[in-house]
Design goal:
73 residues; mainly alpha; 1 helix; 45% helix
Length: 73
């Protein structure tokens, strides 16, 4: 009988803990949703415009009709 009571208390404790964590997460999500971030700070003078993380600009292609390895005429 003691074992059944102990298991019931453990299951009840786990259930209360799960509910408490769920309520805390919901409260935290509401705080995040209500927080509006400000505009980004302006770039200091002297820094490049690109962060260096974007794609490289396209390379110019040679559209001549001569195959590779053939000297131009």
């Amino acid at each position: 009988m003691e074992t059944v009571v102990l298991i019931a208390v453990i299951v009840l404790g786990i259930g209360i803990g799960m509910r408490w964590i769920h309520l805390l997460n919901a409260q935290h999500e509401a705080r995040i949703a209500a927080h509006h971030f400000s505009d980004p700070l302006p770039r200091p003078p002297g820094l490049p415009n690109s962060s260096g993380r974007g794609a490289a600009p396209p390379r110019p292609t040679d559209r001549s009709s001569t195959p590779k390895g053939t000297p131009p005429t």
